[in-house]
Amino acid sequence: MFKHILLPTDGSELSEAAIQKGIQFAKSINAEVTGFHVILPFHVFSLRMGILEDTKEQYERQSKDQAEQFLGVIKKAAEKAGVSCDTDYVTSSQGSAGPADRQRDPQSFNPYQDTRVGVSLSRQ
Known about the structure:
three-stranded parallel beta sheet, 39% helix
């Protein structure tokens, strides 16, 4: 069975819900978890208005702080559940393939490139 579960996060409510489910699952099978976050690269042109005023250094510092905050949610939840947890983040050299990209070309989906892949939530 699984001994180690990757819990990617983008800091969204959906990620937090998936994290809770993932940690519950990990506890039930006595597995470890690793929280993971991908920082998107700095771009001069962005959809986020605030980034237009940032320098690359400011963006990197803020993104690392944000990554630590997102991963702190995983650490805290794992600790509370008694599940062994490690965390890590990386800066992507490319943007991830989001849901719209998969709809256009489902064969291009790469789970190692998409930070939104993890524990899926079933609605009952």
